[in-house]
Amino acid sequence: MSLLKFGVGQPVTRKEDDAFLRGAGRYVADHAPAGCLEAVVLRSPHAAARIRAIDVEKARTLPGVALVLTGADTQALGPLPCQAEIPDIRIDVPPYPVLAREEVRHVGDAVAFVVADTLARANDAAEAIVVDWEPRPTAIGAERALAADAPRVWPQRRDNLAFEATLGDAAATTRAFAGAARVASLTVVNQRLAANFIDTRGVVAEYDPAADRITLTLSSQGSHLVRDVLCNVLKLAPERLRVVTPDVGGGFGTKLFPYREYALAALAARSLKRPVKWIAGRSEHFLADTQGRDNLASARLALDRDNRFVALEVDLVADMGAYLSTFAPFIPYIGAAMLPGLYDIPAAHVRVRGVYTNTVPVDAYRGAGRPEAAYLIERLVDVAAREAGVAPDLLRRKNFIRRGALPYTTATGKTYDSGDFAGHLKRAQELADWRSFGRRLAASRKARRLRGIGFATYVEACGSNGPDTATLRLETDGSVTVLVGTQSTGQGHHTAFAQIIADRLSLPPERVHVIQGDTDLIATGTGTGGSSSIPAGGASVAGAADKLANNLKELAAEALEAAPGDLELADGSVRVAGTDRAAAFADLARRPGAARKLTTQDAFVPGDATYPNGTHLAEVEIDPDTGAVNLLSYVVVDDFGATLNPLLLAGQVHGGAVQGVGQALMEHAVYDRSSGQLMSASLMDYALPRAADVPSFIFETRNVRCRNNPLGVKGAGEAGAIGSCPAVMNAILDALWRAYRIRHVDMPATPERLWAAIAEGRRVHTL
């Protein structure tokens, strides 16, 4: 066996895929213990209403109904907590009850939990519940909700402001603007999105009366976080709640959080002493799962006479929804810290305000604040270049942080450790044939099409979640079992961790078995979030593998009567270097007294974040008669420090980029301004990108090793979604500016929106 074939840096195909392709994957919906009951949630049809009365008597008497829970039945439970902390800011968190009691605050708010012997009967019983509603005025849209006369989402509060925080130096920023030669300004909307993973959320709750213990099998991004929070909600000791996460079909941040249905299923299973299953329908995903983005930001960029950036000022308003979800306030705050991007901006000041509205709560969604920051600064820099009469690439090169200046601390307090920012921009332009764009533009004009080219550079902070405990166990057959606190939701962790072990133990991937998602088996875990699975979880696996390698050499030293320093690992054995004398792992595992050395553990605790960065470059063509956009080419050049598996890495970048393209061109969770109804609560109304909407990606890495991580890697899971929106929109605005001097269009750049902008552009130019 050649180590190079399987080790770090090699394009090993995913070992998980055989089971998935054969239909052998096991998701939460596949879990069906004997005697399992089915549950549904009755949800509010109103965005704001008082519950005058709720009558469940008829529902409880219907055939097959086992239990009906209302807010009155859940008063002993704790609220869902908000765990976000912002430095020097105290957030007054309103209660987030498991079931609404006196009031509902968004369409889809949970009102009752119904359990029956079949799903159809549970639905029938939910429909039989009679609620006497007193509708109230709604506050929809963060900007409107801040108005003095806006209806209060929480009537007892003075206003709808959830929190206010600042970053940077206000005085220095004011002085820099006073002396600026030029100021560019822009206001952008980063619209609300729904995650839309294939595998909707679900839970199966089982109660063991003998042990007085509950087991929850659910679809999550990390069992430990869910368990720890639910123990507080259910008022249980951790040892009385086991959480198991099976295969998961997508998470994107939205599955990180503990949700109401998990606590309700646990309560029902304990009460009925039978398993209880709840699986979300697609509409419930829109109405009950946290949503993403939804920022309104106004920014100003100050430039001196040489077009160097001297200051940045941003006012950001973030829609929090009706309740503060687990990390919600922290998301716009951490995003704001990345607003300077890759630029040497001496002074910056950012105000961040979170606002309550009568909508589904907002929390982390792939990128979690950093896509919003990259979109704002990259759109603003393009506007500044246009107003200064400077090419956008030249203005960026002039203002990039120089490689020799690294490590560099930004005006918002982030310290970038490594990178070559001008280098990946140059390479992206080469791959896109930037210099020949003029010829392609002429061809499009001849065909009566608009054509534009645009790019965005980005940087993000990630890879610092942890610790995730990794335990390695050498089995008696010579294979290795890995138990790790991360959670795969489709990324390919089983393959990636096997490659790390191949590097350390010289063992092929098929001899490595990975176990995740079981709080009984794994000591700690932060799950998968913040692109930390490889930087943090992988570092833990590497640490445990190094310890096991040393132990195996010690065992082999006794068996082979050799010094540990003379031994090497190769082909599943330990051998004396330069000889054919060797001891197989399986033989070492069976040696008397070896057991204590066959299991090792490590839990890497990250220090500073990693800072992946790169350039996305898009070229588009627009039909001016319909507004339809054709994304012609897309180039990505990224710096991820080091590449563990180029196939897995490309998959992550492609997927993230497509999500960004979806946001740029079509995705939007739209609420009616008066009623608060979610107008895009199904896939008939919420558009998602398809394969035909994107070209084949051109992707390269231009890695500069990370100084903050023992593997040298920078987190990669979210990067594709961070650089893509501004790249696509800059390309679209390049086309619109060339033809009609249209300065800005907000996302999503739908055909209708672009057609209207072009029509107005034509009208102005005709005049």
Could you walk me through the main structural features you see in this protein, from its secondary elements to its overall organization?
This protein has 767 residues and is of the alpha+beta class. It contains 20 helices and 28 strands. The strands form seven sheets. The protein has a seven-stranded mixed beta sheet, with helices on both faces. It has a five-stranded mixed beta sheet with strand order 7-15-14-13-8, with helices on both faces. It has a four-stranded mixed beta sheet with strand order 18-26-27-28, sandwiched between helices. It is globular.
Can you give keywords for this protein?
single chain; about 775 residues; alpha+beta; seven-stranded mixed sheet; five-stranded mixed sheet; 20 helices; about 25% strand
Number of DSSP strand runs: 28
Tell me the strand percentage band: 15-25%
Q: How large is the count of helical segments?
A: 20
Which outline best applies? globular
Largest sheet: 7 strands, mixed
